[in-house]
Amino acid sequence: MVKKKVKKIQDDISTSARQIWLAGLGALATGQETGNKVFKDLVKKGAAIEDAGKEQIEKAKGTVSGVTVMAESYWETFEKKLDEKMTAAIHKLGVPTKSEIETLTKKVEDLTKTIETLQKKQAAPARRAPARKPAASATRKTTATAKKA
Predict the structure, then answer these.
(1) pLDDT reading at 98 higher than 90
(2) What is the pTM of this model?
(3) Are 77 and 84 in contact (CB under 8 A)?
């Protein structure tokens, strides 16, 4: 009777081990079948999330671009206003602007050229014509006129 009980326990253990082994193989097969399906589903869901993320990124880029354009516009307006205020303050102090200085510099250069040209014209006749001595006949006439008087 003990031997029968031992044999029965051995058979039960053997049967249980085989069932566990078969359940493991079944789980592996199911895992492979389901795993491929689950993997494919995960890939699809990941692609969908990636596409949605790309759309969000593009929207964000558009928003950033719009904000950048607005910021640049505001900055340009601010620069113009600041420039106008600075120019007004400088004029109140009597400081000439860059364009006024450039205009005056150009006028001074033109005047300098004109003066140099006039100086050359005045110097040229003096070099060309030697100093004249009064002619002898002219001196005699002057002397004769003086004696008559």
Answers:
(1) no
(2) 0.32
(3) no
